[in-house]
Automatic annotation (TrEMBL):
Catalytic activity, EC: 3.5.1.26
Protein name as catalogued: N(4)-(Beta-N-acetylglucosaminyl)-L-asparaginase
Organism superkingdom: Eukaryota
GO biological process: proteolysis
Organism the protein comes from: Pygocentrus nattereri (Red-bellied piranha)
InterPro entries: Ntn_hydrolases_N, Peptidase_T2
Highest classification ranks of the organism: Eukaryota, Metazoa, Chordata, Craniata, Vertebrata
The family this protein is said to belong to: Belongs to the Ntn-hydrolase family.
Length: 339
């Protein structure tokens, strides 16, 4: 069940709240939702609105999980991932492990607009961005330095290493493979802070049903350098198809990207599922293999119906997201209880 708007509960949110245009984004990032909604009100396209919303989150450093100055990797560097998708043309632009450029979603849009490629990564993505006129600057802040220093003082715990020697609980490396791999799935998910996996995923649907989606994140805190999660991967972090709808994911990207939940949810809506049901089915597919994973999904169809779902895990029982449409005419925070 989703809490609809401010005053009532709606058992069938896609029916009672279907309205266009629509902006919906993961987490209660109100400024991002307002920027996207404002762009639509000014007559800009859904693609422009999705970019504007995510760019605002990058500027605001939403929750510390988006933009510069957050989620340092094992070397203390902040790198960015972003993606944008046009549901009318099925074009995608994406960047991963982007260094020294703050406007990651803008670079992703440039990849779409000014190259025949879909996905650029690492230092080469930065070189491309600089060639397109994006400013190169340090993404480190006092906050990210403090996060990194505290992590070093905690003997580099928690981290994403497994099956390595010396034992990661005793040393910060260098890491080498153990002679024999441990049995089982490796490190427990509970060792990783839930807050280290957040991102913004945004779906925008125009008055005529045009669908766009975008994502932006600074990835998982203390990640192995070079790691790219689900956010910039089309079908994983987000997906848009103007013949069906859009979806966006947030959570433990290293797990979620293996299941392409955003693509699956859009295909389920194409097959007739309402957005809430599509979200739940996509989350349940991951839950079958990883019962305690941390993650959530938002979904919207081309009529403006929307829904969300999340997996119940330790410390995560409900998921908050933002909605703006012609009924609210402003960003409104809603929530869904996890399954």
């Amino acid at each position: 069940m989703i809490r609809c708007g401010l005053f009532f509960l709606c058992l069938l949110p896609p029916v009672c709240l279907a309205s266009l245009p629509l902006v919906i984004n993961t987490w209660p990032f109100q400024s991002a939702a307002a920027a996207a909604w404002d762009a639509l009100q000014k007559g800009l396209s859904p693609l422009d609105a999705a970019e504007a919303g995510c760019a605002r989150c990058e500027q605001d450093q939403c929750d510390g999980s988006v933009g510069f100055g957050g989620s340092p990797d094992e070397r203390g560097e902040t790198t960015l991932d972003a993606m944008i998708m046009n549901g009318d043309t099925m074009e995608v632009g994406a960047v991963g492990n982007l260094r020294r450029v703050k406007n990651a979603v803008g670079v992703a849009r440039a990849v779409m607009n000014y190259s025949d490629h879909t996905f650029l990564v690492g230092e080469s993505a930065t070189v491309f961005a600089e060639g397109m006129g994006f400013k190169s600057e340090d993404l480190t802040t006092n906050r990210s330095r403090d996060i990194f220093s505290q992590w070093l003082n905690q003997k580099c715990q928690p981290n994403f290493r497994k099956n390595v020697f010396p034992n990661a609980t005793m040393s910060c490396g260098p890491y080498k493979p153990q002679a024999k791999l441990q049995s089982g799935p490796g490190r427990k998910l509970g060792l990783i802070d839930l807050r280290s996996h957040d991102t913004i995923g945004m779906i925008v649907i125009g008055q005529n049903g045009q669908v766009a989606a975008a994502t932006s994140t600074n990835g998982a805190t203390h990640k192995v350098p070079g790691r790219v999660g689900d956010s910039p991967v089309a079908g994983a972090g987000a997906y848009a198809d103007s013949s069906a709808g859009g979806a966006a994911a947030t959570g433990q990207g290293d797990i979620m990207m293996r299941f392409l939940p955003s693509f699956l949810a859009v295909e389920l809506m194409r097959g007739g599922d309402d957005p809430s049901t599509a979200c739940k089915k996509a989350i349940s597919r991951i839950k079958k293999y990883h019962p305690d994973f941390f993650g959530a999904l938002i979904c919207a169809n081309t009529t403006g119906g929307y829904g969300a779902a999340c997996n119940r895990s330790p410390g995560f029982t409900e998921f908050h997201f933002m909605v703006s449409n012609s009924q609210t005419n402003k960003p409104v925070q809603e929530k869904v209880y996890c399954i």
